Amino acid sequence: MPPIFFDPVLMMVTAPAVLLAMWAQWRVHSSFTAASQEPAPLTGAAAARHILDSAGATDVSIEPTHGTLSDHYDPRAKVLRLSEAVYGARSLAAVGIAAHEAGHALQDAQRYPLMSLRNAAVGVANFGSGLGVMMFILGLAMALKPVALLGLFLFGGTVFFQLVNLPVEIDASNRAKAALVELGIVPPADMPAVNKVLNAAAWTYVAATLQSVLTLLYYASYLTGNRSEDS
C-alpha cells in the first residue's frame, strides 16, 4: 500500500483543484483590496441591516468579529458576524461581502431548501472530514475493508456538504448583487468592483468542491478494481 498520507499520486490527482484554490484566493484578496479603495454610501453593517430589514428579517442581529474575511452567518443564533474590515468600512468591498452574508440570512429566513440541507449536513461533514479519512487509512493499513468502506462513506459526507454548499454560496451572491442594486446601495456603474469580489469568492468554493470530489474518487479507487489488491 502506498503511503497515503503523502501519496504523490493523490497530489497529482488533486493538483488542478489546489492550483485553482490558490488562484481563487489570490483573486479574492486582490479584488477585495481594490474594491476596498472604492467608497460606498453605507458601511458593511448598515448595508446588511438595510437588506435584512427590507426583506423582513428583522430578527437577525449583526455583530463585529475578529479576523480577516471571517464574515459568516450563524443560523442557530440568527447572527450575522462581520469582520473588522467589513463591519464599519464604507467601501464597495465591505458592502459586497456584507450583502453576501445577508443573503445567507435571507436564505435561512425564507427556508431556502438547499440552505436547510446544508445546515443539516454541517455536523456530518465535520465528523467525516477527520474521522472518515483516519478510518479509511486504518482500514487499508490493517486490510480491514469494511472499516475502509465506512471511512470512505463518512468522508463522502464531506463531499456531499461541498456539493450542496456550492449552489448555496452562489445563490447568496446572486441575492446580494440584486439587493445592492434594487435598494440603491450601490449604483449599477459601481457593481463591477463588487462582482469581482463575489465572483472570486465563488471560485474558492468551486475549488474546494473539486478537491473533495477528486479525493473521494481517488480513495474509492483503492476499493474498486485492482489498486487495493496490488498495493
Strand order of the largest sheet: 1-3-2
Give the rounded overall mean pLDDT: 91
Element-by-element helix/strand order: HHEEEHHHHHH
Structural class: mainly alpha
Topology:
Blueprint: H1 8-36, H2 44-54, E1 61-65, E2 72-74, E3 79-83, H3 84-87, H4 92-109, H5 113-141, H6 145-182, H7 191-222, H8 227-230
Describe the structure.
There is one protein chain. This protein is mostly helical. The chain has one domain. 71% of the residues lie in helices and 6% in strands. The chain contains 8 helices and 3 strands, in the order ααβββαααααα. Strands 1-3-2 form a 3-stranded mixed β-sheet. A hairpin with a 4-residue loop joins strand 2 and strand 3. Helix 4 crosses helix 6. The chain is elongated.
